[in-house]
């Protein structure tokens, strides 16, 4: 590892026929990676794309020697610059990690030690990877340099901060600084921006590209987002069920994908579609009159804070109009107030001032009993189908719960009939009736959540990031389902999302939020084609997959 | 910060007051005739009525309950819990006499328990082989499930009667402290070790540990530099439970090893129905309990920067 001149022909990282198994029981193993082969050369930006469960993270862990104990490498080899490190123990791998290969983890919020200052954590990375001992001042200087290279402009200030005092983007930069501190030749980044907002994502990824150009390091980016991969990579690898099914330069993959799965993945990417999804049943009805109107909603949370008053304006005079049979998307980054707005619309929270009208009925200030009646018309679908369903209820119990609560179906038989009908509406069948949520996939769970929301025959569904936790191909199916259901039942949707690609697919109207204020609102085509507000423009530019849209339009 | 401090101190005072009031109700109000409790149970029937009345008047039992309560509370505030029925000495000096010996035993046992717990947690975390780890992790539940009187007697059998290394009882010299210390430390270390093993394992799997691996750190380095502090914090939170275990354990340990101390005194006071002494001890233990939890609450922010930040800006809440 210490001799970089061993062989100039060898790529920085070469993985050959790697097979990784997970222990499934006594002497039973399930393969997670089945014979993966890849290489990354100096100065090359390679992306590894796959959906959850494809084995991409296991592959990366294998490459770094960070596999959990329940996993083993059964076959294949991992070589850095021609040096085979397969099966090296922790002590020897410690010499490779940090100073030959740097790693940028997925979630910046959990990947820094909460009780240590950033500076100390970067200095450690410098110190571990130094051939000759130097004094503390030099370490400090090297750490500061690394932080500046990672794009932390006021490195001196950040140096003395604890992780919780920094934003997500700054934490990710600190982690990049740690990865760079050992002066690695290759950086492996596992979903480095999945936990970040789109605009921050763009800045971080652009920075990685610049690092590659300036320092000549190789980059292996692992991501679930094809758009992210296509925008910046030299080469793309698509992984599915532990195998690499597609490999090639971006242009070729885009224009002429060899594998069927890759083509499906490309088609599922929201950026590929330029217009709105049409329901399967035919043209959708034109949006009707207003069904939901919010005016001047304000909500202030009191923060624990120094001084006489420190408050967070989550909503600052937000207006919103939802038309019958139409979808109104609310977009914005974290902290924009989208979720607060959604929960006020659904009656989970009450505004400090402002009103919400459902038809001609004012919701704000209704008594609990009255609000309960209104809830029949206004249902909510939550973001995470893994936590929003009671794990001890069967599917049929989950869907029947609102029927029972509102006294909508008399008798057991009628209720079962209604539940079956609802499951059919979301494309699940009777065999799912008695399953528990734990036995369903993410997409199936979200279908159950939608069936539950539809149970009381609502007029409006509020969907809070309802597809964000799902893989792109599943996401595409759910979006299609939502569009079909809308046409069939004449539903109105309030669709909260951070993903502008999805907005284009499903929404008629859109409101862009920033810091609790609606900065722009209007029909989707108009807002997307000629955004009036700077922030909208910024958001639109940050959508990954511009290349996809071009290729899709051909 | 001031608000936090006031809140925590207020809570501690409340606990002590509640302990006093509760024992007052249990010991002085609920018994049919509290005077009965003031005499040796064997001689109660032989006491002439005049004497009883005299005693009742002396203790103020003939006055309304609320007045009795206020008088006792007033005296307690000045450190006067009355006099022990058995010895006739004031309660406070009686307790203070035996307190140092118990404090020594408890503090020593606590320190030893912490060492045992951390050693177990560190050993379990740094073990590479699964069976070694499983074995080490099984130790704490073993420690909890052995009753103090059993391990105490066992240790007496082996180390003092058979081997004669340590004296069997008494409280003179450091050597007499060894066996009680170990006896008391083992059960106390159990829950702490269980908690630590779990939190070490959780922290060892967390994201920042992966970051450290990727930096090029070694296993030992990661455990010492990253995991130790994050995983050690939760041990503080069960200091309250630990204190309870120490007191309960000291009653038995002091009895088994015939040592002087609060535990043995309490046991004797309960046996002889020495009501003022029992109340004094209960309030003392409650005060100790409140004090420990107060100290923990005050130390926590020093160790966890996140909490510190919340406090520094926490006045408007």
UniProtKB/TrEMBL annotation, chain A:
Taxonomic superkingdom: Bacteria
GO terms for biological process, alphabetical: peptide transport; transmembrane transport
CDD domains xref list: ABC_NikE_OppD_transporters (cd03257)
Entries under SUPFAM superfamilies matching the protein: P-loop containing nucleoside triphosphate hydrolases (SSF52540)
Domain ABC transporter: 13-266, 292-540
Keyword hit for Nucleotide-binding: yes
Pfam families in alphabetical order: ABC_tran, oligo_HPY
Record keywords: ATP-binding, Nucleotide-binding, Transport
GO MF assignments: ATP binding; ATP hydrolysis activity
Entry-linked NCBIfam families: PRK10419.1, PRK11308.1
Family: Belongs to the ABC transporter superfamily.
Record's protein name: ABC transporter ATP-binding protein
Organism for this UniProt entry: Microbispora hainanensis
From TrEMBL, chain B:
Top-level taxon of the source organism: Bacteria
Subcellular location: Cell membrane
Topology in membrane: Multi-pass membrane protein
Domain ABC transmembrane type-1, chain residue ranges per copy: 99-300
GO CC field: plasma membrane
Gene3D superfamilies in UniProt: MetI-like
Keyword Iron assigned: no
GO terms (BP aspect): transmembrane transport
Chief location category: membrane
InterPro entries: BPD_transp_1_N, MetI-like, MetI-like_sf
Cited SUPFAM superfamilies: MetI-like (SSF161098)
Keyword Coiled coil listed: no
Annotated TM spans: 12-30, 103-124, 144-165, 177-197, 235-257, 277-300
Keyword terms of this UniProt record: Cell membrane, Membrane, Transmembrane, Transmembrane helix, Transport
UniProt record similarity statement: Belongs to the binding-protein-dependent transport system permease family.
Protein name: ABC transporter permease
Biological source species: Microbispora hainanensis
């Amino acid at each position: 590892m210490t001799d970089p001149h061993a062989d100039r022909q060898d790529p920085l990282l070469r993985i050959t026929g790697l097979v990784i198994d997970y222990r499934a029981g006594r002497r039973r193993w399930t393969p997670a990676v089945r014979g993966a082969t890849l290489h990354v050369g100096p100065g090359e930006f390679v992306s590894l794309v796959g959906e959850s469960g494809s084995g991409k993270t296991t592959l990366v862990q294998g490459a770094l020697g960070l596999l959990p104990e329940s996993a083993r490498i059964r076959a294949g080899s991992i070589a850095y610059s021609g040096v085979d490190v397969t099966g090296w123990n922790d002590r020897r791998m410690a010499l490779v990690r940090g100073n030959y290969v740097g790693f940028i983890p997925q979630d910046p919020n959990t990947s820094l030690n909460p009780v240590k200052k950033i500076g100390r954590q970067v200095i450690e990375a410098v110190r571990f990877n130094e051939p000759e001992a130097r004094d503390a001042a030099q370490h400090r200087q090297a750490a500061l340099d690394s932080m500046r290279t990672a794009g932390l402009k006021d490195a001196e200030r950040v140096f003395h901060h604890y992780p919780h005092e920094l934003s997500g983007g700054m934490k990710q930069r600190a982690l990049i600084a740690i990865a760079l501190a050992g002066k690695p030749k290759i950086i492996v980044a596992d979903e480095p921006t999945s936990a970040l907002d789109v605009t921050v994502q763009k800045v971080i990824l652009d920075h990685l590209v610049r690092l590659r150009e300036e320092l000549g390091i190789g980059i292996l980016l692992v991501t679930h987002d094809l758009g992210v991969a296509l925008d910046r990579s030299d080469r793309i690898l698509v992984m599915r069920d532990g195998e690499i099914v597609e490999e090639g330069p971006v242009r070729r993959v885009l224009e002429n994908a060899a594998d069927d799965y890759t083509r499906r993945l490309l088609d599922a990417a929201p950026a590929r579609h330029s217009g709105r999804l049409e329901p399967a049943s035919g043209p959708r009805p034109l949006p009707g009159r207003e069904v939901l109107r919010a005016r001047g909603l304000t909500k202030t949370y009191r923060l624990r804070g120094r001084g006489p008053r420190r408050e967070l304006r989550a909503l600052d005079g937000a207006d919103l109009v939802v038309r019958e049979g139409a979808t109104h998307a609310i977009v914005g980054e974290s902290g924009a107030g989208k979720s607060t707005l959604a929960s006020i619309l659904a009656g989970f929270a009450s505004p400090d001032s402002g009103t919400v009208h459902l038809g001609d009925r004012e919701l704000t200030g209704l008594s609990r009993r009255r609000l309960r009646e209104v809830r029949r018309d206004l249902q909510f679908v939550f973001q995470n189908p893994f936590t929003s369903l009671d794990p001890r209820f069967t599917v049929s119990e989950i869907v029947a719960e609102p029927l029972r609560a509102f006294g909508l179906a008399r008798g057991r038989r009628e209720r079962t009939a209604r539940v079956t009908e609802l499951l059919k509406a979301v494309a699940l069948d009777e065999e799912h009736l008695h399953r528990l949520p734990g036995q369903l996939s993410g997409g199936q769970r979200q279908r159950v959540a939608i069936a539950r929301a539809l149970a009381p025959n609502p007029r409006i569904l509020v969907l809070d990031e309802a597809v964000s936790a799902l893989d792109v191909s599943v996401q595409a199916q759910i979006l299609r389902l939502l569009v079909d259901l809308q046409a069939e039942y004449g539903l109105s949707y309030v669709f909260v999302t951070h993903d502008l690609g999805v907005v284009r697919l499903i929404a008629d109207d859109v409101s862009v939020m920033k810091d609790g204020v609606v900065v722009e609102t209007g029909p989707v085509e108009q807002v997307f084609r000629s955004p009036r507000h700077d922030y909208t423009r910024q958001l639109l530019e940050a959508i990954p997959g511009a290349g996809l849209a071009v290729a899709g339009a051909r | 910060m001031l608000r936090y401090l006031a809140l925590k101190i207020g809570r501690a005072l409340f606990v002590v007051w509640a302990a006093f009031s509760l024992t007052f109700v249990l010991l002085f109000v609920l018994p049919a005739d509290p005077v009965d409790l003031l005499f040796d149970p064997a001689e109660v029937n032989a006491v002439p009525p005049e004497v009883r009345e005299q005693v009742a008047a002396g203790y103020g039992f003939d006055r309304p309950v609320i007045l009795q309560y206020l008088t006792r509370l007033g005296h307690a505030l000045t450190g006067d819990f009355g006099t022990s029925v058995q010895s006739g000495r004031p309660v406070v000096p009686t307790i203070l006499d035996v307190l140092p010996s118990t404090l020594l035993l408890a503090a020593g046992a606590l320190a030893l328990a912490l060492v045992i717990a951390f050693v177990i947690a560190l050993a379990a975390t740094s073990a590479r082989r699964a069976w070694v780890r499983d074995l080490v992790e099984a130790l704490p539940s073993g420690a909890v499930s052995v009753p103090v009187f059993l391990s105490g007697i066992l240790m007496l059998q082996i180390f003092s009667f058979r081997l004669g290394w340590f004296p069997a009882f008494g409280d003179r010299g450091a050597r007499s402290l060894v066996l009680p210390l170990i006896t008391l430390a083992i059960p106390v270390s159990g829950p702490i070790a269980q908690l630590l093993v779990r939190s070490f394992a959780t922290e060892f799997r967390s994201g920042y540990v992966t970051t450290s691996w990727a930096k090029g750190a070694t296993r030992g380095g990661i455990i010492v530099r990253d995991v130790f502090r994050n995983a050690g914090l939760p041990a503080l939170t069960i200091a309250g439970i630990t204190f309870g275990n120490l007191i309960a354990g000291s009653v038995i340990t002091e009895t088994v090893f015939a040592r002087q101390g609060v535990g043995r005194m309490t046991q004797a006071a309960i046996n002889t129905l020495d009501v003022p002494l029992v109340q004094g001890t209960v309030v003392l233990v409650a005060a100790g309990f409140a004090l420990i939890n107060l100290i923990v609450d005050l130390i926590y922010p020093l160790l966890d920067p996140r909490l510190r930040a919340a406090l520094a800006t926490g006045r408007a809440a």
